[in-house]
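User: Hi! Is it possible to get a structure for several chains at once, not just one? Here's what I have:
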Amino acid sequence: MQLEFRGNKDFWAGVMMIVTGLTAIIIARNYDFGTALRMGPGYFPSVLGGILILFGLYLVASGLRSNEKIVGGWSLRALIVLPLALILFGVLMDYAGFVPALMVLIVGSALAGNEFRLIEVLVLAIGLTAFAVALFVWGLNMPYPLFIGW
Amino acid sequence: MELFDNLIFGFSVAFSLQNLMYCLIGVSVGTLIGVLPGIGPLATIAMLLPITFNVAPVGALIMLAGIYYGAQYGGSTTAILVNLPGETSAVVTCIDGYQMARKGRAGPALAIAAIGSFAAGTFGTLLIALAGPPLAELALKFGAPDYFSLLLMGLVAAAVLAEGDMMKSLAMVAMGLLLGIVGTDVNTGVQRFSFGFSELTDGISFIVVAVGVFAIGEIISNLGDPEQRSVFTDKVRNLYPSKADLKASIGPITRGTLLGSFFGVLPGTGPSIASFSSYMVEKKVAKDPSQFGHGAIQGVAGPEAANNADAQCKFIPMLTLGLPASATMALMLGALTIQGIQPGPDVMTTRPELFWGLVASMWIGNALLVVLNLPMIGLWVKLLKVPYRLLFPAIMAFSAIGIYSVNNSSFDIYLTAIFGVIGFLWIKLGCSPAPMMLGFVLGPMMEEHLRRAMLMSGGDPMVFVTSPISLAFLIATVGIIIVMVAPAVRARRADITG
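Assistant: Yes, the chains can be modeled jointly so their relative placement is included. Here is the combined structure:
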């Protein structure tokens, strides 16, 4: 039997479960475990962690047996750009205001796509931002400054 | 008749101008996202939830419910016209619906889908009204052990019956339960898994998890595998089905409605299982099964009725027991909790306007969908041509605004980004996130009932077996597992979910 780890779907799913379960148990050791009668805050997470590890072990074993591959692309570009755009939105909401934050988020997100047409994206960003300002800030009275310190 | 009094009361609530408007907004948004592939009702409801904070609970729930069943309608429209299921529940509709469209019978296909859905929706509404009160009364007798076993059954059933790998789904339930623990322990005040962040003392907001996984994670995954779409642009003429069409559809609609209602109350069975079973049944009972796959109207009528009945009946366990039967219902439950309402058997007596208003609004919403959808099909088809490269930045924008407005904090935004990445990994590893969502929402409740049950019994786990209600749920749980791992069912399941 040839062991194949690369792109092995169930194997890595199992590893993820085991790591999560172990982490939960290790952290939960700081909390009082208690007894079955008076369960402490550590009881439920420790038991769940154990259950996760068991499932993880099963998945690792079945992954090594079936060796089913992960399908489709990894979209590395989107995987990096989209979360970054979101984080930037969060920072800008606090320091630059609603309008710049949203514009940056929309243009930034568009950069994650497979096609980027500058004019189209700018029109989209301006249109969506105007719509959002009208709906959320003016219409629903959400208390966000449009611009901070401009 | 108490039922009629209640229904009339419900309609008086639902027919208020405000609630009618919320219903209309809900079903329109629902149809819109149903038509647009790549965004489902789950992500939409999560995104729009914060907007409903300022709305009265009845209005909020009416609107969210409208999005939910409106999406089913929209999903079948695209299934018929472009052979592309806007929602997974419409996969079956593609088979014969699209064939009908290719033969120039798109109009009757759309009409029969709408009529079937409406009939099923009416039946579903009545069923909720009929079954709700006695179920809630029964649930009032539940003690802590009974609730724990009920939740256990719900979660196991949801994982086992859901599409995809059963073991992974069960593991994802545990994962969700674990995520639900984050925050302050209600019994001792201890901070658990908050990693020193004061923002996590109240736990992770379920909106953050839902948007992160189902909106952001989904987008990342979609961008990795761009799909090819070809729009069938032929004009839809002659909407009205012939007498023969109607006659051929009565049987399938009735059977589909019954099947859908049955699957609807079961946790975990998505509308796709209901519609698949209906299709199988229709193919079996048909006089001429060879027509199936070549534009048989029965293949549209039955499944469409089934998936709508399923969608409506999913509300029964949520409203009466506080047990969400699907991830979307878990969001609705969360929405109620945010509004300060603890969903459960008391809701019907303490907030009758909520229960009966919602029930009545669902019937109105279904009627609105028929009226709204058929004449506006041209518009929906045009929307289909909106390319994904414009769609996903818009989804990102609405998601971000929605998340930020929950606590007005950027922390939630950062957390959403993290869950987006995690959600993408889950999708890639074939771990279905829907069972996780159920576990996440039900986790705190489950732990609470477990601890209370053990305290009451003096630490004796036998309490779960000695209480007859709890025992019944546990036996049902074991039964579901046995049935699902039985080889015959397994083979068929593989057949269906293929």
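Chain A touches chain B through 73 residues (CB under 8 Å). Chain A has a mean pLDDT of 88.

User: Great, thank you!
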